[in-house]
Write a structure and sequence with these properties.
mainly beta; Immunoglobulin-like; Jelly Rolls; 2 domains; 2 helices
């Protein structure tokens, strides 16, 4: 018998792609240095995308290995190295705040607010005088002020938390027609966003429950309509696979959550126009991990 010895051929190693991020500051704004390598990949169109937002893409050189981007907003971002339209690598970019950071969202960059401009003793918020000074207008439709506290909150998980808060959009109808508010619980794997508005504007609301976007034009979100400018007591709770939102003790949302946002790393309030937050309490299970009352005695 003739035995033939089969010669095995060794497969080529995978392309040596790498992608890492390093912050240059612990404050805002924050430049992030990306170190990347695409050796072994076919030369082509290379981009770095700052986050999930596909509009935040920057072309980079295939022949270099460093690129810097500026982050003006806090958050937990997953940056992407994209070659010829395909995501090759991802890396986390965690831009934290030192306590609450307030800013008016605008392009190309936000207007930051000092603590003296937002902590008046009546709560955490912004008044008509400050917003007029910063924006030059008293018509505030589409003008959003954000209040963000981005950092780890112990080991609080997105499938077992409760957020209790009291807030109001105190704009007049002439300043902001719908007087929208968005409450965001930010996780490493996504976010839960609960929108509120005055009664009559609920059709424009969009609620995010991790990976599911619920539109007020397709579902009944009328229970999220509020009697602004009165203060509203709002509870956002996820237990297991259920999301409950209560407004002034009344159940407004009872929804299935099929996707966990992971470890909670931030709270964010967005107010269209003028508004105030009185207090915030975050629970991990039954234990309060953060509690702050913004009203001075």
């Amino acid at each position: 018998m003739l035995f033939l010895k089969h010669r095995t051929t060794q497969s080529s190693p995978p392309p040596a792609t790498s992608f890492e991020a390093h912050k240059t500051s612990d404050d805002l704004p924050n430049s992030v240095i990306f170190n990347y390598s695409i050796s072994g990949l076919p030369t082509g169109h290379v981009m770095i995308q700052q986050s999930w937002d596909s509009t935040r893409q920057e072309d980079v050189s295939a022949n270099r290995n460093k690129h810097a981007s500026i982050y003006y907003y806090p958050g937990y971002f997953v940056a992407k190295l994209i070659v010829n339209g395909k995501i090759q690598k991802e890396t986390a970019v965690f831009i934290q705040t030192k306590g609450w950071k307030a800013m008016i969202r605008r392009k190309p960059m936000p207007a930051y607010l000092s603590s003296g401009e937002t902590r008046t003793g009546r709560g955490l918020g912004i008044d008509a005088v400050t917003i007029l000074k910063k924006t030059g207008t008293s018509v505030l439709n589409g003008t959003w002020t954000e209040f963000a506290n981005v950092r780890p909150f112990g080991d609080t998980k997105g499938d077992n938390f409760r957020l209790e808060t009291t807030l109001a959009n105190t704009s007049t109808a002439e300043e902001s027609i719908c007087r929208n508010v968005k409450i965001t619980v930010l996780g490493k794997g996504g976010a839960i966003i609960v929108p509120l508005s005055v009664k009559g504007c609920e059709a424009n609301l969009e609620m995010l429950t991790g990976d599911q976007l619920i539109s007020g034009r397709e579902e009944d979100l009328s229970a999220l309509g509020c009697n602004f400018p009165d203060f509203q007591d709002v509870t956002v709770q996820v237990s297991g696979s259920r999301l409950h939102v209560l407004i002034n003790g009344k159940l407004a949302v009872d929804s299935t959550v099929s996707y966990t946002i992971g470890e909670i790393v931030g709270l964010r309030y967005a107010i269209e126009g003028i508004g105030t937050i009185k207090h915030v309490t975050l629970y991990s299970g039954k234990k309060a991990v953060y509690n702050e009352n913004f009203i001075k005695d």
